[in-house]
Design goal:
By secondary structure, the chain is mainly β. The protein has two domains: about 150 residues, Translation factors (Elongation Factor Tu (Ef-tu), domain 3), CATH 2.40.30.10; about 35 residues, no CATH class. The protein is about 10% helix and about 40% strand. It has three helices and twelve strands; from the N terminus they run βββαβαββββαββββ. The strands form three sheets. Strands 1-2-11-10-7-12 form a six-stranded antiparallel barrel. A hairpin with a 4-residue loop joins strand 10 and strand 11.
């Protein structure tokens, strides 16, 4: 079975009652119709992939315009998806919408998580604070960050720094809703990123 892929924007969250009578959270995402803009082949590029254009705008960057000049579209975003022999029937100009998924499909979603700004060690790494009695003065200080030798901090040391805004992938989520008319797709559970954030949805290959 082919593994479809789709770009979408996060709308928000809602809930539904499943067939067992349990209230379950759903993340709604909006996905406009996407156009296949180019194909990558093993012979020419060394790998197989198809490129899609997402979201139409009035003015596009010059780096994008040269790639889509023959298709009469003006996408904001271009993304590539690897494909296998089962998906080799795609052609330049083909349209892709939320209909590539069905209710009950298992997918993985990828997005940039919410940025939390600069954070200390307690918030970022769950450090304990120091005591506030008996003369303790190290309330939220990180403590020692290394020995005198070799006189530099080792890479990966847990310290204060930028938190969030990282690429996060969540696997094995179930598609709960597909509305082709409204270009909506819903997934049970949470999806990383803020509202209006760009989401990549990929189907999980079915071995059966």
């Amino acid at each position: 079975m082919a593994t479809p892929a789709l770009l979408a924007r996060k709308v928000g969250m809602t809930s539904t009652i499943d067939k067992n009578g349990v209230v379950r959270a759903i993340t709604l995402m909006s996905s406009e119709e996407q156009t296949v803009t180019s194909l990558k082949t093993t012979e020419k590029d060394g790998y197989r992939a198809y490129q899609v254009g997402f979201e139409q705008v009035k003015k596009i960057k010059k780096s994008i315009s040269g790639q889509v000049s023959k298709l009469n579209i003006m996408p904001r975003i271009l993304r590539e998806f690897r494909y296998n022999e089962e998906q080799s029937n795609k052609n330049v100009g083909d349209k892709i919408n939320v209909g590539v998924f069905s209710i009950g499909d298992i997918v993985s979603v990828s997005a940039l998580s919410k940025g939390k700004g600069w954070a200390g060690t307690i918030k970022r790494h769950n450090f304990h604070r120091g005591r506030k009695t008996h003369g303790g003065r190290s309330y939220r200080r990180p403590g020692s960050i290394g020995s005198m030798y070799p006189q530099h901090i080792f890479k990966g040391k847990k310290m204060a720094g930028r938190m969030g805004h990282n690429q996060v992938t969540i696997k094995n989520l179930e598609v709960a809703l597909v509305d082709i008319e409204k270009n909506l797709i819903g997934i049970f559970g949470s999806v990383p990123g803020p509202r209006k954030g760009l989401i990549t949805i990929k189907g999980v290959k079915n071995e059966n």
